[in-house]
Amino acid sequence: RQAAAARPIQALPDQLISQIAAGEVVERPSAVVKELLENALDAGATQISVRLEEGGVKRIAITDNGRGIPPEQMPLALARHATSKISSLHDLENVGTLGFRGEALASIASVAAVTLTSRTADAPHAWELVGSHEGTVAPSSGALGTTIDVQDLYFNTPARRKFLKSEQTEFGHCAEVVRRIALARPDVSFSLTHNGRTIDHWNVCDMARRSAQILGEGFAEARLPIDETAGPLRIHGYTGLPTASKARADGQFFYVNGRFVRDKVLVHAVKAAYQDVLHGDRFPSYALALELDPALVDVNVHPSKIEVRFRDSRAVHQFVFHAVQRALAQTSATSHGSVPS
Ligand code: ADP
Ligand code: MG
């Protein structure tokens, strides 16, 4: 290993900065799917379609019926550190949108061939931007809303492309991201196709129906509703009876202010609530949403925002633990301690 040769310090070119960021923001196709779905939801879409080819590596095209992007702002949508979602530290600390970093589209555009097509309500037709923020915005056709078409992911970063797994594995990760997001938003319809085949389609419905569709009828028959509020904290959703537990942790969905998270505090709180009713090697299934003042939780911990930090994690742990424990206790009371099969 050699010391770096003495070279002058230079500012990196924009494209390279985005490619470096892409390593974190768009680790694999499913991360692109997540970013694009979150943008569609932030734009108020009620109908979203996801079309994938070859596990998303060949193509990820997401169409929404959200508010669209005016033509003069389309280059900015692909520019780095440009966002319509926050404009101050105060906004950041109270963020209510899924996105706010303004780097997803720029990162994606730096490692794939991107076409952005969008039409706002007051525009007579759609507009299209190909490539990057340096491209030209040209008239196009298309319905109200936005389509982002991402092709040939990592075509220009072969080292990263090598880390991709098989088409089926990458597709599986993409489908999981769609399920996660769809589970939290029964008020939005989602469709997913892979290589032209329809894989999933969920119409607008309520949480009871959506959770049955995504977690299975087995979960629907063995779920306990939870809805509790204490001070600034609210938890709602469903937690499964021990009969709905699994040998793997793949039925666990926790959302914080609408965002799917993997958080040790939350996972532990639920696990602790099940301690008396579930064998240690089983994993409870649940679809739970925690809502709290955005100022009480920091979502800006990691670019993918899958981790969060609570200002008072002890209070959150207690709250979640007791809410789940109470839900479980109620059934054992009504069923006289026995677990319905
Ligand atoms: P962020 O979501 O953090 O703001 P992105 O790079 O994901 O950053 O998107 C940049 C901007 O492009 C967003 O702030 C938004 O204004 C616009 N945008 C992206 N996707 C959509 C969409 N599907 N519909 C409407 N506007 C969008
Ligand atoms: Mg975004």
UniProtKB/TrEMBL annotation:
UniProt GO molecular function: ATP binding; ATP hydrolysis activity; ATP-dependent DNA damage sensor activity; mismatched DNA binding
Domain DNA mismatch repair protein S5: 211-329
DNA damage as UniProt keyword: yes
Keyword DNA repair: yes
GO (cellular component) term, any one: mismatch repair complex
A biological process term (GO) from this entry: mismatch repair
Keywords, comma-separated and alphabetical: DNA damage, DNA repair
Functional description taken from the UniProt entry: This protein is involved in the repair of mismatches in DNA. It is required for dam-dependent methyl-directed DNA mismatch repair. May act as a 'molecular matchmaker', a protein that promotes the formation of a stable complex between two or more DNA-binding proteins in an ATP-dependent manner without itself being part of a final effector complex.
Family under the similarity heading: Belongs to the DNA mismatch repair MutL/HexB family.
Descriptive protein name: DNA mismatch repair protein MutL
Organism expressing this protein natively: Duganella phyllosphaerae
Gene: mutL
Residues of the full protein shown: 9 to 349 of 666
